[in-house]
Amino acid sequence: xxxxxxxxxxxxxxxxxxxxxxxxxxxxxxxxxxxxxxxxxxxxxxxxxxxxxxxxxxxxxxxxxxxxxxxxxxxxxxxxxxxxxxxxxxxxxxxxxxxxxxxxxxxxxxxxxxxxxxxxxxxxxxxxxxxxxxxxxxxxxxxxxxxxxxxxxxxxxxxxxxxxxxxxxxxxxxxxxxxxxxxxxxxxxxxxxxxxxxxxxxxxxxxxxxxxxxxxxxxxxxxxxxxxxxxxxxxxxxxxxxxxxxxxxxxxxxxxxxxxxxxxxxxxxxxxxxxxxxxxxxxxxxxxxxxxxxxxxxxxxxxxxxxxxxxxxxxxxxxxxxxxxxxxxxxxxxxxxxxxxxxxxxxxxxxxxxxxxxxxxxxxxxxxxxxxxxxxxxxxxxxxxxxxxxxxxxxxxxxxxxxxxxxxxxxxxxxxxxxxxxxxxxxxxxxxxxxxxxxxxxxxxxxxxxxxxxxxxxxxxxxxxxxxxxxxxxxxxxxxxxxxxxxxxxxxxxxxxxxxxxxxxxxxxxxxxxxxxxxxxxxxxxxxxxxxxxxxxxxxxxxxxxxxxxxxxxxxxxxxxxxxxxxxxxxxxxxxxxxxxxxxxxxxxxxxxxxxxxxxxxxxxxxxxxxxxxxxxxxxxxxxxxxxxxxxxxxxxxxx
Length: 640
What we know:
Elements: H1 3-18, H2 27-35, E1 40-43, H3 50-60, E2 64-68, H4 72-84, E3 89-92, H5 98-110, E4 115-118, H6 126-134, E5 137-142, H7 165-168, E6 174-178, H8 183-192, E7 200-203, E8 211-217, H9 221-231, E9 235-239, H10 243-255, E10 260-263, H11 269-280, E11 286-289, E12 302-307, H12 314-321, E13 331-337, H13 339-352, H14 356-369, E14 381-383, H15 386-393, H16 397-409, E15 413-415, E16 424-427, H17 431-440, H18 445-454, E17 463-464, H19 467-473, H20 478-490, E18 494-497, E19 504-507, H21 521-543, H22 549-556, H23 569-578, H24 581-597, H25 602-608, H26 612-624, E20 628-630, E21 636-638
Parallel strand pairs: 1-6, 1-7, 2-4, 2-5, 3-4, 5-6, 8-13, 9-11, 9-12, 10-11, 12-13
Antiparallel strand pairs: 14-19, 15-19, 16-17, 16-18, 20-21
Helix pairs in contact: 1-3, 2-3, 5-6, 13-21, 14-16, 19-20, 23-26, 24-26
């Protein structure tokens, strides 16, 4: 196939399934690299459209695209979005049954599945590897590829095993994608995935011209954030570390007539989904959240991202701040900090270094919590409430969290993130046996017929169901319906898996005596050094008062520039000293006169006032003094 034909083909796929007329910068080149069979590394900052880069070529080629991702909630969301577009996609993650996995893998071999999402841990299971050998795989996509590097801010040891798939299929090409990676992490990704010499690397600039970074020292944060949100309009995210703090701040904002809500992993999945939906639809303006919020959410019109607590790394900060202004319009990334925040960040760093003794104590506490005897518990999975565990055994939650991460790295335990799995059913009985059963158990017939009539594909794969809706349709109480479903399961007519939305923990091996736990102390020291470097870089970014914020970020990601952005707080503070009162007043009157004619966008005003800093300063002054306001279409107009 010629390049021109391929280009027309992938553009028609983009239009047909996503409705876009053209690709974003670098997307087409990345897709072409994959179609040419080359190993490819794509660094596209948050909001750069990474998923399109592997989803489009997956549809262009024969076979299944295997997507490795560490985030179950994100996998589920992408599968849902693809299925809504009539693209056959599926995902394998902890919490689904072996029978479900069997059916999903069969559909990859014999069916029409185009994308299969898998967590890195699942790649090593015997069941998966047996089926993988039989699959026609178009290529392998490694999402969040920075997880492969010990120098990355979110290292996941199972990522180091991904390349073993190439021993089974040596010609398998790979695309690795990430939103943020330093030069060292980029080299690690290429090396650990054993990229071929012909590989290609695509890096989109980390500079966000429409995002204004603003770091402010502030002892009284609540009055300050209230002032900011009253002055600046538009959708906002406020990040905090503590679940309790998110609830407190949301309540404070509501008391002052700011539309706000809170979000954290301790809420039920139904409630999280409702809150997220309300915010996306702009029914709620401000979402106060822990870092559990935002991943995979494509809301383009976020005007303000505020950090009330400091992230552990510049990568995490960049990803979170980068959720603002994806529509290309001016947006602000504001961080409020004080001395207590600096101390807390250093304390978190100290608590993140887990000794073998601390990890062993945590392991013992978990075993006792579930009343597991030594030598038992292999492959058993339990609902997990870290806060109840800590309260029961008087443990520090941060140390327990980091201990579990270490125990997972060493292969003793595994955990999943909290996510919602809906109830689902699958018909196990053949149609002949089903007909006989319906005659014998006539009182079950209405339910069986309803399921067959309203659910497509229940003989081929597991289908999500809504017990409330079915009970209402059959004029039953929900409890009675569940009893019927359980009965049909016992009779082997269906397999019924009830919904779940709790974090889970699994014992990979049987519970071991403390003396048998082995830890790599050199690796513990190395990972602590990486975390220390990350915190040091974050503190440098926060406490700096002389270097352009954007230049610090670009330098961190090895993107060299000598130009100041002209719009961060450091640049603005420097420039304010250079702007005279006459400069500001002349610009204000000029803007005011032009706005008397018609409302104007930021781009329009930039053509009038060439000095970016002067323009930003004047707009901020005019808005705070009630002279102008933003309209719904993001233009500025005079307030009469």
